[in-house]
Amino acid sequence: MGALITSTAQVEGPAPEAVIARDIIKRAAYVTPAFLLVAGLIWGMNGAFSAAYGLTIVVCNFALAAALLTWSANISAGLMMGAALFGYLIRLALIFTAIWLVRDAAWVVMLPLGLTIIIAHLGLLFWEMKFISASLAFPALKPSAVSKESSAQ
Amino acid sequence: MSILAQATEVAVDKATAQAIAGATNAGMAYGLAAIGPGIGIGYLVGQSVQAMARQPEAAGMVRTTMFLGIAFTEALALIGFVVFILLKFV
Fold it and tell me: B29 touching A, CB under 8 A?
C-alpha cells in the first residue's frame, strides 16, 4: 500500500503533466506549418503572423499549466489544488495581457488569432488523447509513444 | 448653428454610449464564460486530490486525467475569451 496523501504531503510518483505537455508541444510543432499556411492563404502574411502568435500562446499555456502542477505537486497536494485554480486565473490573465499588448499592432488580425487559439487548443488535446495511456504501469503516454520519445532524445 | 452643434453632440453621445455598452457586454460575456470553467476546475481538482488520497498508487494516472480535464475545461473559457476579443477588437 502506498503512502497516505494528506493535503500537506507531497504527491509522490511520476509527473505525467510534464511528459504530456512535452508531447503536445512536439505535436504543435508538426501542425504549425499547416496553421501558418491556411492563415496565410486566407488572411495574408499578417494572418500567418497572428496564427503563429496564437500557437505560441497555446503552447505556452500548456507548458505553464504543466510546470505549475508539477512544481506544486512536489510540495503538497493542497498547494496543487491552489495552483490548479489560481493557475487557471493567472493563465487567463496572461493570455489576456498577451493579446492586449499586441491588439493595435499592424501584423495582428484578430480573427485568425482567435480561431487559432481555439482550434489549436482543442485539436491538440483531442489528438493527444490518442496517445494517452493513463494506466498504472504507464500513467502518462502509451508505451509506443514513450519509446519513440525516449529514442528521439 | 446651435441645432447643428446639438445634433453633433447627440451623435457623439450615442456613439460613446454604444461603445460603452459594447465594452460592458463583451466584459460580461468574458466574465460569465470564465465562471463555469472555474467551478468545473475546482470540482475536478478537488475530486482528483480525493482520489489520490484514497489510492496513492494511482496518483500518476489521476494526475494525467486531471491535467487533461483541466485543459478541456479551460477550452470553454478560451472560447469565451475569443468571443470577447472578437466583440471588443474587431
Answer: no
Domain B13-89 homologous superfamily, CATH: F1F0 ATP synthase subunit C (1.20.20.10)
Residues of A in contact with B86 (CB under 8 A): 110-111, 114
DSSP A142: -
- Report the domain count for chain A: 1
In a domain, A148, yes or no: no
- A20, A66, A88 ranked by CB distance to B41: nearest: A88
Q: What whole-number distance in Å separates Cα of residue A78 and Cα of residue A100?
A: 33
- B74 CB near a chain A CB, below 8 Å? yes
Contact A5 B79 (CB under 8 A): no
Residues in chain B with CB shorter than 8 Å from the CB of A122 are 75
Q: What is the pTM of this model?
A: 0.83
What is the end-to-end Cα distance of chain B in Å, rounded?
35
CA distance A147 to B1: 81
Least Cα distance to A59 among A27, A84, A85 occurs for A27
Domain ranges of chain B: 13-89
The torsion angles phi and psi of A135, rounded to 5 degrees, stand at: -115, 170
With a threshold of 0.95, tell me whether the complex ipTM lies above it: no
Q: What is the pLDDT along chain A (153 residues), one digit of tens a residue?
A: 455 556 666 777 778 889 999 999 999 999 999 999 999 999 999 999 999 999 999 999 999 999 999 999 888 888 888 999 899 999 999 999 999 999 889 999 999 999 999 999 999 999 999 888 877 777 878 787 656 666 655
**Contact residues, chain A, for B51 at CB < 8 Å:** none
